[in-house]
Amino acid sequence: MKKAKLLSMVSVFFSLILILAACGGSESSSSSAGGGGSKGDTVNIGYSGPLSGPAAFYGERTLNGLKMAAEEINESGGFEVKGKKYKINLESLDDKYLPNETGANAKRLVQEHKTPIIFTPHSGGVAALQVFNQQDKFIIGAYTSEPKITESGNKLTIRIPPRYDGYIEPFTEYTMERFGKKIAALPTASQYGKDWTEKLLPHWEKSGGEVVYNSSIDFTKDTDFFTIVTNALKKKPDVLFIGGASEPTAKVAKQARELGFKGGFIIMDQAKLDEMNKVTGSYEALEGSIGVLPLVDNNNSGTDKFVKKYNEKYKEDPGSEAGLNYIAMNIFVEAMKAAGTVDDSEAIRKHMQEGLDNLPEEKKVYNIPSIDKDGGFESELIVGAVEEGKIVPIEVK
């Protein structure tokens, strides 16, 4: 009797361990106006991005764009595929901006929620998913401007923002002409930052400039940039190349100004000038910066409506990460309708151009004429610079 009782207690103990293990993992949340779950009338869409840590605001704003699109679709009664109505359930997981976490999250999303599409907003996370997404048959909604992710030959990857290498020439020309030829590089230490640096600095030198300092900042670890900014400024640069998520990038710019830097800033496309302004406290601190023109200054058919609704919901202006992911979700839904399926990722991918062509006019927050053969949205480059305390558009030739 005692032995049987002991075996029973051991069995219960191990059962509890298994239950607790199953409940572990990254924090998860779902968003669906029609209710969550994996019902026959629901399409689960996945998201893995930074929802904690220094890039949390960036990850949340990306997710906000997806949420708004899903909520609008669901509130309108959903969408129809082959005579059946579907609603969207958005499953989101925090990857803390770590590619290994992105990979683990994607495995969980596919296994538990059967997600045909998983969005992620960083190149390291996209690269991690490309190892197995074709085998596991899900499309990567890649919010990264890294050209390599669509040049890799992965047939189930869609790049959402325009490639960053289109910014290299106008950014170089503007800052070199206005401030001088000496540049110091202090970008984010992520793979995206390394790739940007490998493109920009050779072009800078080819254009007659000099690289006087080249380092990087790990925003997942560093919160005080005094030492590295001081070391860069000792080389007397005319221009600082900085970037990453908006908030930490703004802190680097602010600290450079506090240390007496008077030159210009080349801002990588992830950081947004209007979001940086909230940290620096004024555009005067960002004088001479060149980067992506804020979404609120765009003039597309769906921009004003989207900005107003986003502002009412989240009490702030949206950035391009919110606007472009909002468009992407709507294009994916149109592609599902055109493909006649909500779960065949290969068929959905084949109908992405048709999905773009069928995008309603009021959803066109940005102008995206086409999707290239490798799966990249061919958006027009919209550049802005801070001049005399305000953002002005810069024509890209």
What layout of secondary structure does this protein have?
Blueprint: H1 2-22, E1 28-31, E2 42-49, H2 56-75, E3 79-81, E4 84-94, H3 99-113, E5 117-120, H4 123-129, H5 133-136, E6 139-142, H6 148-151, E7 157-159, H7 168-179, E8 182-187, H8 191-206, E9 210-214, H9 226-233, E10 239-243, H10 246-258, E11 264-267, H11 273-280, E12 289-292, H12 303-314, H13 320-339, H14 345-350, H15 352-357, E13 383-387, E14 390-394
Parallel strand pairs: 2-4, 2-5, 5-6, 6-7, 8-9, 8-10, 10-11, 11-12
Antiparallel strand pairs: 1-4, 3-4, 12-13, 13-14
CATH T-level topology of the largest domain: Rossmann fold
CATH architecture label name of the largest domain = 3-Layer(aba) Sandwich
Query: Approximately how much helix is present in the residues?
Result: 40-55%
What CATH first level of the largest domain would be assigned? Alpha Beta
Which class of secondary structure composition applies to the elements?
A: alpha/beta
- DSSP strand tally: 14
Q: Count the domains.
A: 2
- Strand fraction equals 15-25%
- The number of helical segments is 15
Distance between the termini: 86 Å
How would you describe what is shown here?
The chain starts with a helix and ends with a strand. It has two domains: 30-164 and 302-363, Rossmann fold; 165-297 and 382-394, Rossmann fold, CATH 3.40.50.2300. The strands form two sheets. Strands 1, 2, 3, 4, 5, 6 and 7 form a seven-stranded mixed sheet that branches. The longest helix is centred in the N-terminal third of the chain and has 21 residues, at 2-22. It contains 15 helices and 14 strands. α3 packs across α4 and α10 (246-258) crosses α11 (273-280). It has helices spanning 2-22, 56-75, 99-113, 123-129, 133-136, 148-151, 168-179, 191-206, 226-233, 246-258, 273-280, 303-314, 320-339, 345-350, 352-357, and strands at 28-31, 42-49, 79-81, 84-94, 117-120, 139-142, 157-159, 182-187, 210-214, 239-243, 264-267, 289-292, 383-387, 390-394. The protein has 397 residues and is an alpha/beta fold. Helices cover 43% and strands 18% of the residues.
